[in-house]
Amino acid sequence: MIARYLATAAVIVGLAMSSLACSKSNTSPSTVSSIAITGTVPAVGASSQFTATATMADGTIQDVTSTATWQSSNTSDATVSATGVVTSVSAGSVQIQATYLAVTGTDSLTIGS
């Protein structure tokens, strides 16, 4: 009977140790250091695909164009789609922003007439 209790206790201790070892993992998801936005300024009435690239804290680079949140500072001059397509509406200045994991990158555009 004592041997049975000791075997059960050994199994419980083993499971507890295994659980603790797994929860102390040193791996963590990379954080974003910066976002770079690139693209060609479209002429009035035209569109152009812009790209958002994230530089991660571990030095790796990721294309986040399709997962970033895009925004235009002045939709009277240019709009930007959820996938980063910028459409010029009229001549003027506008900032295009892409945000990924709470980090925002900005590109300032001057749209000619």
Secondary structure blueprint with pairings:
Blueprint: H1 2-23, E1 32-38, E2 47-49, E3 51-56, E4 61-63, E5 69-72, E6 78-80, E7 85-88, E8 92-100, E9 103-111
Antiparallel strand pairs: 1-3, 2-7, 3-4, 5-8, 6-7, 8-9
Principal-axes geometry comes out as elongated
Helix count, DSSP H or I runs of 4 or more residues? 1
What is the residue-mean pLDDT, rounded to a whole number? 84
- Structural category is alpha+beta
What Rg is obtained from the alpha carbons, in whole angstroms? 25 Å
Give the termini distance in whole angstroms. 91 Å
- Portion of residues in beta strands equals 35-45%
The fold-level CATH name is Immunoglobulin-like
Instruction: Using the 3D structure, state the CATH architecture.
Output: Sandwich
